[in-house]
Fold:
Amino acid sequence: MTEKDRPQKDRPWVMRTYAGHSTAAASNALYRTNLAKGQTGLSVAFDLPTQTGYDPDSPLSRGEVGKVGVPVPHLGEMRKLFDGIPLTEMNTSMTINAVAMWMLAMYQVVAEEQNPDLSPEEVAAQLAGTTQNDIIKEYLSRGTYAFPPEASMRLIADMIAYTVHQIPKWNPINICSYHLQEAGATPTQELAYALCTAIAVLDTVKNAGEVSEDDFEKVVGRISFFVNAGVRFIEETCKMRAFVRLWDEITSERYGVQDPKMRRFRYGVQVNSLGLTEAQPENNVQRIVLEMLGVTLSKNARARAVQLPAWNEALGLPRPWDQQWSLRLQQVLAFESDLLEYDDIFDGSHVIEAKVAELVEGARAEIDRVQAMGGAIAAVEYMKSELVSSHASRRARIESGEEIIVGVNRFESTEPSPLTADLDAAIMAADPEAESTALASLEAWKAERDDDEVTEALDAIRAAAKTDTNLMGPTLAAARAGATTGEWAATLREVFGEYRGPTGVSGAVAVSTAGSAGAELTAVRARVKETGQELGGRLRLLVGKPGLDGHSNGAEQVAVRARDAGFEVVYQGIRLTPEQIVAAAVAEDVHCVGLSILSGSHMELVPTVLEGLREAGLADVPVIVGGIIPDSDGRRLVEQGVAAVYTPKDFGLTEIMNGIVDVIRKANHLD
Structure:
């Protein structure tokens, strides 16, 4: 075949890796390296204090600074983050929700500083990228919210109105179904709840009156989505085609959008991290490839941007080499294969069409159910409960062996892996100086700024928040004045108030496990009852989420299974200080404290809880810990007094319940 005869290739999707850690300077070096390796867009991971609107010196930030992303408490750190990276030429995705307005403001100001010869309006017109800005899924699955629902939706509407008029190439919101699947959503639920969120956002913008009827099509055209792709890649392909069909239907029929380009379903994807295993982690590579195929094979429903996790994310923080491997997976598919040379290979498939029709029908019914409740905001508690129940069902299928996970519940025998021969070297350790560096940066920043100017800017935000004024203007002024992330969020918290999302645990449906799994649960129930009787009452388990880690799926599933096993469960949700957890243990007179931490802050937070229990006279109450915890850290926690450590390889929840009974009996000298 001559070069002339070769089919014309489509342009590849934007290739990203989700990255950010330790400090802005270290993250900047990583971004430049990844761009030099052929990455075509940036995807910024912020640390939990930044995501939830706290500065590094907040008590809630302890142990969390620089752990799951980069700390950006002020404009100076945003400058360092993008030093030498021309923002008017870059496509940047920022995974930020509660404080999305603040991050976009600092991003715009840095771009203005990079281009002093252009007016702010000219700079804004050139910026391209995405702010995730989907607060509803934060209440349902991820937990990095800062303000109550109505106030959060107001911030989203203000941002959308601003970007449509001032930053036309920016996607102001990325409706995120990714974390819904991580929280247990079936494909039907992922479709329905994401689209209900989009409806809620568009209705809010329409009702706010900041965008004219003529410009409303532009709002619809700038809505993007961020989805999850699981390993069932045929089903995932059909899910994406269903998304395309339903979005076209909603935007046409509900909102009257005439331009087909404005109705296009535009989405980026991060393939499923939930399905990555600690056991035989080399199997994660083929899982990632299969998941990538689900969002690239179908031309008519192909992702516009793709970022892949690394093979070792169930073990800890990936190294630059691991991220490079994931980038190369994308590049081989896009540039070596012939995937981009053909029209949609699924058109005309009866199998695909039947599955798409089934998903569309199921999603329509669930959308109608949520809309009948008053829409996504009103139905948050219902949707959360449904997700917890779906996740419990999935866990039960894995434990019973009905759902096979290679290397976990089937084909468990393995040769030693050279990839994990040295577990501590197979992941990147978090920078132990990240927190002190961030604190020093914050102190220096505050010393150099004009405090009167900052106070005036924050007062303007406070005043505007009490009216219908678009908050983007005052927020930009505060960024230029030198306000911090925590100060901006604290000012809005004063006006909007605090909020705690539903846990979904009390309404979750208990799962009946069949066969041997059911017999195992029955046996554990008997041990729980017997041990409680020996101790003079029902066994009480406190499930605690210390720090800012909002990944509550594991804690929720432990709480649901513990309840099903006969424990009285105390679970107050996310974002608790160690002191609050100790106070709850005292007040509830619990027999065991279980801590769930997935952010890497276990070595700071767990010892604080242990010390608090000792000071409260509860040194004999055993503490167990679950999370992504390297072996060396697990050993240190046990040496400090933790009774048991559970990691992702410990997938059997009923077995864990049995272990908790063992721990309680040992602590009370019953054996």
